Amino acid sequence: MKSLQSIPTFVFLCLFLFSACSSEPIQLSDYDWKVTQLAGSNAPKAKLESLTLEFKEGQEIGGFAGCNEFRGGATYNQQQIKFSTLYTNNQSCEDAALERIYLKNLESSVNYIYNANKLVMQDQSGNILVELEKL
């Protein structure tokens, strides 16, 4: 009889634990990110890892794109993301092509996946455009 009384307690405890584990949306602004892969580029790893992305308050973003710092905006929910036009101060350098690819890929991103320490940006077809990891 005593074991029958503990069943509701057990069920309640299980429900409580499962609800506590529900996935909350990641706060992308909690981290700074560095690029690890970039579609359309065969740049060496060291060059890619110099590219950064930072989500700031108020839907603002910024980072380093290879030659220049960049800024702009981004709106996102749990899976979708939309970048505004991204602006730089247009200083030229030898990595200008890499910068153009990076900014174009960010602006073309419509979905993202966050998993452990990685952030993956995808286009409408699910193609990976940019992979980043936490700094």
Automatic annotation (TrEMBL):
Q: Which residues form the signal peptide?
A: 1-23
Which keywords annotate this record? Signal
Which stretches make up the DUF306 domain?
Answer: 27-130
Protein's recorded name: DUF306 domain-containing protein
